[in-house]
Structures are given as C-alpha cells and as structure tokens.
Please model this.
Amino acid sequence: MPELRKDPVIGRWVIIATERSKRPDDFLHVKIPEKPSPFCPFCEGNEEKTPPEVYAVRRDGTLPDTPGWKVRVVPNKFPALVREGEVRERMEDGYRLMDGVGAHEVIIETPKHDGIIPRLSEEEVGLILDAYRRRYISLKEDERLRYILIFKNHGREAGASLAHPHSQIIATPIVPKRVKEELYGSERFYREKGKCVYCWMIEQELSSKKRVVAETENFIAFCPFASRFPFEVWLLPKYHSAFFEDVKEPDEFASIFKRVITAIHDVLSDPPYNLVLHTSPTMNEHWEHMEKSYHWHMEIMPKLTRVAGFEWGTGFYINPTSPEEAARYLRERCM
Amino acid sequence: MPELRKDPVIGRWVIIATERSKRPDDFLHVKIPEKPSPFCPFCEGNEEKTPPEVYAVRRDGTLPDTPGWKVRVVPNKFPALVREGEVRERMEDGYRLMDGVGAHEVIIETPKHDGIIPRLSEEEVGLILDAYRRRYISLKEDERLRYILIFKNHGREAGASLAHPHSQIIATPIVPKRVKEELYGSERFYREKGKCVYCWMIEQELSSKKRVVAETENFIAFCPFASRFPFEVWLLPKYHSAFFEDVKEPDEFASIFKRVITAIHDVLSDPPYNLVLHTSPTMNEHWEHMEKSYHWHMEIMPKLTRVAGFEWGTGFYINPTSPEEAARYLRERCM
Model:
C-alpha cells in the first residue's frame, strides 16, 4: 500500500510509492559521458580565466589569481544577479519587479579537476565548508541582501555545467518562498508546541533510529520521514542553532558531511545530486521567534528519478524508495 | 541587468537572468535517443497488456480492450495511489501519514505510437481533452478524493517513461501544496481587489500584448510575467471559470491548445515538456470565495534548462529567457 506522508515543517504531503519500490540497483543508469572539455577555467593554472578571486586558501607567498590555492572563490562569470544597483520595487504592466541586485559566486572546491568530495581528505572538505561560512559572513555585511543561498549541483543531470567540483552562492534581496515556508512552518510549530520543529524531529529520529544515516556528538544525518526524493538526506546540528555561520565543531561537521556524501556516492555509484544549505535570513526580516524556532540544516537530494515533471507544477512528490529503506543502505556505509 | 519578478498569484519571485540570455537555438541539444522498444503496451493491438480500460472512444461495434479506439483510458499498471482503502490520518514515530488512497490513470491519447499532438487533427486533440474532462467528472464522484491532477510528461527528460503519447491523472485525498498556494493567493487578491487575479492578469496581458502567444474569442495563451522556465506558457479561458470541467467551446479550446503545443514543438524542435492542468479542488474543501477567486488554466513548461537543481530546494527559479522574448518567437508560429 502506498503511503501519503506529511512533512512536519511546511506541511507538504508526499507519496511514498511502495508499489514502485526501488532499491539502489534500480537507479543505476548509463551516465551521459561528460564532454571531454579541452579547457577547464577552474583548474589550477587557469586562474586568469575567471573573474578575480574574492577569497582563497593559499600557500604562503602565492599571489591572488595564481596557482598555489586549495579552495578559491570567484564571482560567477555569468551572474544570475549582480552586485551593483539599488533594491527598489517598481511596476511594469501592473506587475511588481526589481533590479536583479545580489551576488553570485562560485566556490571552486579543489584545484583537482576530479577532486570530488569522497576523494578529498577531511581537512580539504573542512576548507570548503569553511569557505561557505566565510563568504556567508562577508556577504551578510551587504545590507541590501536578505538571503544567502549556498548550494552545490553535482553532475550534469543535477545542473552542473562544469565538471570541476564547485559550489555556488546566490545572495538575494528577497527571501525565497521555500525558505519563508520553512520559517512560517517552524514558527507555527514553536508557538503551538513551545519548541523547535527540527529539534523535535531529531528527537523522533533518535528515538526510532529507523531513518538515521550517521551521527556524531553534535550532528545527525537522516532520511526525512516525508522524503521527496529517493535517498534524500538532511544533515543538522543536534544542538539548536538558527544560523549556519555559528557552526561549532567545524571539523566534526566536515567529517560527517564527508561520510554522508561518500555513502551516497558509494551506494548509488556517484549519482548526480543537489545540496542546499538552509539557514536563517540575514537581516531586515522580522521573524519574531526565528532564533528559537528555526534550525539550520543541509538538504542533500540525489537526482535519480525523472518523474519530477509534474512535481514542479504541483509541489506534489512521488518517491519510489521509502526513507527507512534508503537509510538502511546509507547507514551500512556510514557506520 | 537581470530582473527579479514577482508572480501575482502566489508571490513567488523569479530571476529573469538577462546576462545569460538564451534564444531558441541555444536550447537545441542532442536528444537522448529513445530506446527502440521492442514492444509498446499502448499501441493498438496490445490492449491486453494494460489493465482493463475505464473509458474509450471506439468505433461502433468494437469491444472494450480490443482494437478500434481513438483515445483509451486505463488504470496505471504501477499506480502511485490505489483505489481501495479508507482515508484516515494516523501517526507513526510522531509523524502524520495516511494510506495512499486515490486513483492513477493513463490517458492513451492516440493509437499511433508517434502521434504527438502537432501531428493530430484538431478533432483528435479534442477527443483527448474531452477524455480529460470525462474522467475528471467521473473521478469527482468519489468523495474520498479532494483533488484531481491531470498532467502530461512529454519526452524522457520530462519524465515520460514510455514514448507513446499519453497523459496521466492522479486523484488525491489531499489538496497539493502548490494548488493550495494558488487558492490562498487568489483568495487574498479577491478580498483585496474584489476580482479574480487571473482575470486581472488577462486584462494586463491583453493591454500590453507583449507576452501574448495566441488568442481566440474565449481563450488566451501567454508567457507569464514571472515565468519560471524559458518558453513557459499558460493557457486560460478569458471568461471567468473556476472549474475545468465546465469548459465551454471545447472545439475552440482544442484548436488553441493544438496551436500552442505545435508552436512550442516547432520553435524548440520538439522539446521535452510538462503540462499541468490547474483547476479547483473537487469538494470537501472550504474556500469561501473559490468560485469567484480561482480560475482554471493549463501550465505548459518546456524542460530546457538543467539549472533546476537548486530550484527544487529553494523554490527560487532562474530563467534565462524573458517571457517577452519567448512570446515573440511563439507568437510568430501561432498567428
């Protein structure tokens, strides 16, 4: 019997379609081979092909925009939003719009073209996550920006146009709808139950154990009860914290992050995936209980199904793999 | 300068990323060839390979589940939701869920394996749309069902697992989140402005003309101001109507529907696309002003970009083609 399950934060129902139940092997598909790129602008030695770097972890004595870096952050050459301009709503044909002011940066995670996360050391992974945090803190200073989205598309089918491992930051003058829904949902839960809905979820998961993928002293990864996608994993601090930039124990976070990504890579043979960091808006947004009700986390969404068509149009997801089953496969590799 | 544009119904902001502006030719990509299927269960003559038909348009004297049909509707062999069961919420590990009760049907649009909409006559297209309506009316009788989703995935990259032209119906015991957002948004607009937000949009579009793709006496197709996807098109009745099943002038609707789909096919070289019918919930849902505030419509979303990764996670869309430019290309083929 298929099940309809409700996400406790934003109230989204998903179908867990057991009649179409799929195990990891069912998803192994022939990959579209990467086009052998004659030239990669993200590789060491090609620094002049990107806009000038805004941050880098460098060997002592090396100059900006030259070799010798471990992680490098540059503005996107084809930005979705631009730094210059003023945030002001205006009307056109009766509709509301504003200039596309914001920021769009690329975090080049490693100088190695094939340096995907499972092949990096924990220290190297830690540098990537630290770059997320440092750029977050820097962009937050810009008072025009209300939300800073950090995300990663891995694999062409997940939207990565360049194979060289990289993440992206898009900072926007508005708070995205999906983030607002989480803020509303968690605020409602907080008002009703007097606690953070994510803290509550962590309690449920630690108590049932069925969906837990990995755990450390301060962090937990689990497949959410109402997973939209097969092998979807959320990674959260166990302690309450609304702000990613306040992350404690960054080494421990890098360790569990690497383990989870590696488990997904191993169980599903390097699938395409999207990773999105969900954290509080930067400022200028008034959410009375935000510090207490919201809880930062990462959502990792392997892109295995093509049934995603109508989900876009309806917000209604069909997931052919139960999170309990997904967690069992991933846990084996993580523990 | 990129623009941030706000959807007037649900308040979603999208980025129209002019710095990455894309014209139709930029989207022409090498298609993944369809696997030559040795056998198609939807072709005429193979009727016994599907569950027994629940509706068909047949030549006089032909028996159910035999050749001689023009449109044929069957239950999905691998249903996401099943007809049997009772709708009752229960708890598991603290979370809410219910049995996956509902319906999942397949509308086989034509006996011809390669009979895509641009190759069918207006009469044949009319039979498909009429099948939508008839199944809608039939499923609506089931009091457990609150929403009936009609959608079509065309092309493998849009989620179609079989190449033979078909649409799907999924009837659910809950109203999908995205539909609720539209209902809330249009009700809010109605309370504030005393009119239907879709009727208001039609007025804006007819006045500016910039985004209109096609028009008949009773219907209009336009690229919405805050289009999420390149070449996204909405098709609506010009007269106010909350309920698809009440469609007037079905021949006129079939004609403009065929013209719009054909224009998309021609301009973008048969792209993958998703089509979703948005209409009111069936019953048991109390929306005070629904008849007056909601307006049924079809959303047609070509699947041309792969940047969709983080959109899933954030609800934030980046569209590299302005709707004004998309409409100009499509209009040329439609008029």
Remarks:
- The mean pLDDT of chain A is 92.
- Residues 3-334 of chain A form a domain with the HIT family, subunit A fold (CATH 3.30.428.10).
